[in-house]
Amino acid sequence: MHRRTVLALALGAALLASGCTGTGGSAKGARADAPTDPAAVSGTIKVLTQRTDLVQDGTMKKYAAAFNRTYPKVEVEFEALTDYEAEVKIRMNTENYGDVLLIPAVIKKNDYPKFFASLGSTAERARTHRFTGFTDVGGKVYGQSPIGVTPGFVYNKKVWRRAGVTRWPTTPAEFLADLKAIKAKTDAVPYYTNFAAQWPLTSWTYVDGSVGCDTGATTKLATGDPWASGADLRVGDTLLYDIVHQGLAEKDPTTTNWEASKPRLAKGEIATQWLGTWAVIQFQDAARQAGTDPADIGFMPFPAQVDGKFCAVVGPDYNQAVNVHSPHKAAARAWLDWFTDRSGYAADNLAVSPLKDAPLPTVLKPYEDQGVTFIELDDTEGAAVKEIDDQSEIGIYKPDYRQDLVDLARGARKGDLDGFLGGLGERWADARRTVESR
Amino acid sequence: MTDTATGEAPARLAAEPARAAPAPRRARLWRGVTPWLFLLVPLALLAVFTYAPIVNMVAYSFTDWDGVSPELRWTGTGNYTELLTRPELFEVFFVSGYYLAASVVQIAVGLYFATVLSFDVRFRTFFKGLLFFPYLINGVAIGFVFLYFFQDGGTLDSVLALFGRHPDHAWLGTPVSANVSLAGVSVWRYTGLSFVLFLGAIQSIPGELYEAAELDGANRWQQFRHIIAPGIRPVLTLSVILSISGSLSAFDIPYIMTGGATGTETFVIQTVKLAFQFNKTGLASAAAVVLLLIILAVTWLQRRLVPDDRVDLV
């Protein structure tokens, strides 16, 4: 008995010692400078990506081959991760997380310099590139999104036309009336929540900025109540509530299917989904496979206008960065720059290019015709918003509270909308006080 | 090298008794060490993959770690205080009630089939396989299969339609219906396990007992009541313990099928969300420790209430 306890104690102590090793190794001030001579850059770099589809179908290999025409001595390897966020988060406890990677949402902005190499000064890069503010720490840029996306409604033009709607609704009330017309005149499901897939519900947070056409919308989240009367999130959440409450969404949200929703929208069985520009190409592909016309896939802004004009927020997708521990920083930087500026990745995805002088993609042609104002949100308070969000456990970038909202709207949960949104506001305010007092 | 030395010992013992004296001691030493040598690898694996994570988890539960940040602050018992002062975090245990009720069904059904199939029945082996089969399927696959099963117009609705019933019911639509459906899936999955445990126990009961009982004119129910039930008591107790701890820590099926939406969130789902959604790894570790303690307490209580007696049928 005695010997056993001693052994257990020794074992426990050894484990405790090994368990508490820190993850230091912060090379402060590390930079990944753009190489001047492409022929001189060499090395094998590993690029982590969430695009499993593009790695499997060889598209990424094609990009790498094109890259090698300029940088012949750099070998690019890809590693596609299915559950990108969760897997990379764990790997980032070591130094081995690829040479080029997408910045996971969990990393605090102020920690960027500990994990990523700087890409140079923000002021300089902002002259040519978009979204530099999203990865700015102390005047330096730490990442660059290769595409810009705009949230909006993906819709089936034919279905909307059949319902007699020819122009974009300009207010939430008008939008609801149009969905009612679709329900009355067609067999299509007016709006599809994709409740079971969860993440599509999170796109409703990206109404932020579109409603009030305010570039400071994110700052407002950090300093005020996101669900105050007239605030962007309240307008968006109320619209979602009304859609479901008035029976304009699918009959059984709990068993929806994202993959199946694409061909269904293409075939006109579903009329509308709130997603983003990135989704358009996927729905067009689904239309091609289903044998319907890809040109029927339309894209419209949030039904709100300021001074008679719609507003569309252009925001970054995942930001690409260079691992601060990478032994081939020049090669990694070369890939990052080439992929952002010259690969054509943004155009291939019908997305907004991160280059300021690049033309808008064709999906957004109707936006240009209608004079939609494009804005880019100021992200200086982005880190604070995330911190308040985590502290409050609301999760504005997570599906949970919107699932609750949908449940509330269809009567599977007790309460009313005002009480629900008011409760969120209170939790948000409490969390803000806690975060500020730290 | 050393092996040959011990092997030669008896020969030397005969030739040189004086020098051979230490050999038996060494042999005794080796005899003591050998089992540990064999245990070295499994113990190392056990330590690295079972105990090290637990020790780590307990250590994290006293910090405010977010899961990635290189900096973590020692917060003492702060996480535990927070947990205990937020009763809403324990409300999710109501959901366990559904799984607890389901495990009663699971044990009853498993016991019934184990008893029936322990007697001579036609296609006995086939039915045994059939009943055990669901347990062999991966939980993730089961989750997806049953998503289609409960879908609007899915398998369940189609089957009901065959019998002329059109309930038009969203099976995962309301908290009660969703939890009952999910608990039903878990019954489907784990009945096979209960069944196999009971069958094994029943088959270890000597056959003469049945023969003797039959000669005495006992019917099947009496045989069950007086031979089988007392004979499998330890396994029955084990099953109850397993199903209680399983109900408290239900995770994979609800997580895959609903993600905890519509009132189906269990304690483990809540913990996972704290850790990976809201990046409160410290708090989530504390929650995991609390769950561990709750399960240990429940098990201990149960062992006290139902002591594990030796089975003595003869």
What can you tell me about this protein's structure?
The complex is a heterodimer of chains A (438) and B (314). With 438 residues, chain A is an alpha/beta fold. Chain A has 2 domains: 24-148 and 317-358, D-Maltodextrin-Binding Protein, domain 2 (3-Layer(aba) Sandwich), CATH 3.40.190.10; 151-313 and 359-438, Periplasmic binding protein-like II (D-Maltodextrin-Binding Protein, domain 2, 3-Layer(aba) Sandwich), CATH 3.40.190.10. In chain A, 42% of the residues lie in helices and 13% in strands. Chain A has 19 helices and 15 strands. In chain A, strand 5 and strand 6 form a beta hairpin. The radius of gyration of chain A is 24 Å and the shape is globular. Mean pLDDT of chain A is 89; it is low at 1-29. In chain B, helix 5 (93-118) runs parallel beside helix 9 and helix 5 (93-118) runs antiparallel to helix 12 (233-248). The two termini of chain B are 53 Å apart. With 314 residues, chain B is mainly alpha-helical. Chain B is globular. At the A-B interface, helix 1, helix 17 and helix 18 of A face helix 3 and helix 14 of B.
